[in-house]
């Protein structure tokens, strides 16, 4: 038993955050919290209800209508929007783009950060996102910043789509990743960046197992 700990994993799209955070949470027998899913759910709500998500005031004015619940079924995180399971519906490129846009809005971030802190208040968690080490859990036991070249990350996404039998052009994926990187890193509120006391791991030429081992070892050292 390691005692209570919080592990923050940040980084750009396709760096391997969710894959690695999920495995670590399973190995360490603690809760995995996917914060990107929450921004995606706000994006999905806007798309479904014809709210212009590029308009900050329009999004702020519907925030109180967006009920998000995080539920754990068989150890997997399920996310509900006003009572409906949207865990699969949020995994589209269109929703990712909307999520990245609404994630630039201060009121959206404040509401979601508050939820995220409450979820982590009493138990051991592995939480992944963009601002976990810098804003959500500044006292985290360990902060990891995962990176990989944009080309490598686009290629990983391509392989994921191919595995699902879907045809997507590599150039389109690369452009989408670069646009989201740019928006996430250059926004005013909580931009994507490594915490001063975070540890950066370039995953470009590391296997998932190697990264998991490295992080588990670092966490053990901290505890
Ligand atoms: O959560 P995030 O967007 O950071 O990335 P992910 O969805 O966990 O990973 C994107 C894809 O890259 C997944 O298909 C992983 O299996 C793969 N991956 C990899 O091939 N090698 C790594 N070292 C890390 C992730
Ligand atoms: O899986 P992927 O890495 O592609 O994205 P995600 O983690 O599901 O996050 C979707 C979008 O939400 C990101 O592009 C960010 O703009 C935003 N996000 C954020 O701003 N802060 C977080 N803690 C998590 C996600």
From TrEMBL:
Residues involved in ATP binding: 11-19
UniProt GO molecular function: ATP binding; chorismate mutase activity; dCMP kinase activity
Cytidylate kinase domain segment(s): 8-220
GO CC annotation terms, alphabetical: cytosol
Catalytic activity: CMP + ATP = CDP + ADP; dCMP + ATP = dCDP + ADP; chorismate = prephenate
UniProt record, GO biological process: amino acid biosynthetic process; aromatic amino acid family biosynthetic process; nucleobase-containing small molecule interconversion; pyrimidine nucleotide metabolic process
Domain of life assignment: Bacteria
The entry's keywords: Amino-acid biosynthesis, Aromatic amino acid biosynthesis, ATP-binding, Cytoplasm, Isomerase, Kinase, Nucleotide-binding, Transferase
EC top class, as a word: transferase
Localization of this protein: Cytoplasm
The protein's Enzyme Commission number: 2.7.4.25
Predominant location category: cytoplasm
Family statement drawn from the similarity comment of this UniProt entry: Belongs to the cytidylate kinase family. Type 1 subfamily.
Protein name as it appears in the record: Cytidylate kinase
Organism annotation: Zhenhengia yiwuensis
Gene (UniProt): cmk
Full-protein positions shown: 41 to 263 of 263
């Amino acid at each position: 038993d390691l005692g209570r700990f919080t592990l923050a994993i940040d980084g750009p799209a396709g760096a391997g955050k969710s894959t690695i955070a999920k495995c670590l949470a399973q190995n360490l027998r603690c809760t995995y919290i996917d914060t990107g899913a929450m921004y995606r759910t706000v994006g999905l709500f806007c798309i479904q209800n014809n709210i212009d998500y590029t308009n900050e005031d329009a999004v702020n004015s519907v925030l109180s209508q967006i009920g998000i619940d995080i539920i754990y079924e068989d150890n997997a995180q399920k996310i509900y929007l006003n009572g409906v399971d949207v865990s699969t519906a949020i995994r589209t490129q269109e929703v990712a783009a909307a999520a990245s846009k609404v994630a630039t809005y201060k009121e959206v971030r404040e509401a979601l950060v508050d939820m995220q802190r409450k979820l982590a208040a009493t138990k051991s968690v592995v939480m992944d996102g963009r601002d976990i080490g810098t804003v959500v859990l500044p006292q985290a036991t360990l902060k990891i910043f995962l990176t990989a070249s944009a080309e490598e990350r686009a290629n990983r996404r391509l392989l994921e789509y191919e595995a699902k039998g879907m045809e997507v052009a590599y150039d389109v994926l690369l452009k989408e990743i670069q646009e989201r990187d740019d928006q996430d890193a250059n926004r005013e509120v909580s931009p994507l960046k490594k915490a001063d006391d975070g540890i950066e791991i370039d995953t470009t030429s590391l296997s998932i197992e190697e990264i998991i081992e490295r992080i588990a070892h670092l966490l053990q050292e901290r505890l």
